[in-house]
Amino acid sequence: MSEVRVRFAPSPTGYLHIGGARTALFNWLFAHKMGGKLILRIEDTDIERLKEDSVSQILTSLKWLGITWDEGPEVGGDYGPYYQSQRFDIYKKYVDQLVAEGKAYYCFCTPEDLEAAREKQRAAKQPFRYARTCRDLSKEEVEARIASGAKYSVRLKIPAEGSITVHDLIHGDVTFNMDQFDDFVIMKSNGIPTYNFAVCIDDHLMGMTHVLRAEEHLSNTPKQLLVYEAFGWEPPKFGHMSMILAPDRSKLSKRHGATSVEEFRSQGYLAEAIVNYLTLLGWGPGDERELFTLEETVKLFQLEQMSKKAAIYDTKKLTWMNGQYLSELPLEKILPEVKPFFIKDGFVDEAWFDTHAEYFAKLVDVVRVRVKTLQEVADASSYFFQDVTSYDEKGVAKHFKPESVALLEQCIAAIEADDVYDLASTEAAYNKIAADNNLALGKVIHPTRLALTGRTVSPGMFDVMVLLGKERTLERLHKAVEYIKAM
After folding, report:
1. pLDDT digit string (tens) for 446-459?
2. Residues 455-482: b if buried by 16+ CB within 10 A, e if exposed
3. Theoretical Cys-Cys bridge with 222: which of 176, 294, 305, 374, CB 3.0 to 4.6 Å?
4. Distances in Å between the alpha carbon of 214 and those of 172, 198, 416, 475?
5. Where are the alpha helices (DSSP H) in 329-460?
6. Which residues pair with 154 in a beta bridge?
7. What amino acid positions are annotated as catalytic residues?
8. 461 φ, ψ to 5°?
9. In 25-43, which positions are buried (b, 16+ CB within 10 angstroms) versus exposed (e)?
């Protein structure tokens, strides 16, 4: 078997969608499993919908996810250019070849002509099919119209009857009747090739052995097979991944939450969690495991295990998964990822990290086990950087009672007498207070937590006390005592 070559070919009309990221991921997995290559091609011919920064955002998102490519932008290769907008001369050459061979023809029908025909068929409740009006124009008439400056598109001649079968690696054989299609345009009147034509030229010239893409492209595949047939080329093998649907099984959209990789990154999700989650959208390892690395997935991956059923997009599952990675990844991997969230929220500036690196590492390590995203790490750390100005109302009703004053004053006295002030000494002091008052330890910890953080939930209380430091801990306990007295 020749070297496996697959491609990811996004259109730069926005940020990298979660569905596009999944397509890129499965192509990457297949290439690595088969010892092949992943080619990145930018399909930027949709001029009206192009967005200026989309290409750079797509490349950044792919690299952040750990999805690298062997040929394409920033890498180069022997089969470029890797931007379709730089390949128009190539497409024109192959359009001219098909016209010269009588397999395609110039169409002079105007948009108004086509709309009038469409209206007639609509009134007759028929699907629109181009009537092949220009298919049999004489050579002389074609040349005369071109000479007169008439605008034209180019259409591919296809059979009017019969059927065509797509041999799909995931869905099996899918047969389409030819009466669903007409002589479709392969080059528009502005000289820009259509998607179904350009993609075939590129996939053939770039040596693609497999085309793995989203299920919505399955209906395009018969047209592409007709292009391959017109040139006498062997098509690649096709595999169409199941659709990604919202929890209500509707089409995924913005109303279901974040849908781009960049959005998830800005909300504090980790690349490892997103990749792991995407892997399970349409594929499974064959056992009950839910957490595995890219390297583990490559070893396990089999294209035959891809599901035909639609995958359901569930951000709750992703958030749970993110929490697992957040608590388990090495701290040195988490720190640079979470740092921008502290800066964004205004807790510290860039220079602060240079002089407080050790403190920052301890803080993040303590906080990360109780939260699910990087943003929540920053949110849950606010009281380390800002004074507590209010207390949780339910917490006040439950833990700030008149008898709490004496208890907190005992805590203040014990801390003032603690010359060591570390995890062991603070815990020992609090255990003694609980024992002396014949109370469960929680009865001492809960009002202290509320006093120090303003919250009823936090990391381990003794971790919080040590990270705040002795002076700030005492200040907040005194403040809480005065607050309770004034209630």
Report:
1. 999 999 999 999 99
2. eeebbebbbbbbbbebebbeebbeebbe
3. 176
4. 15, 18, 65, 59
5. 331-344, 350-355, 357-367, 374-379, 382-385, 393-399, 402-416, 423-436, 441-453
6. 106, 187
7. 254
8. -60, -40
9. bbbbbbbbbbebbbbbbbb
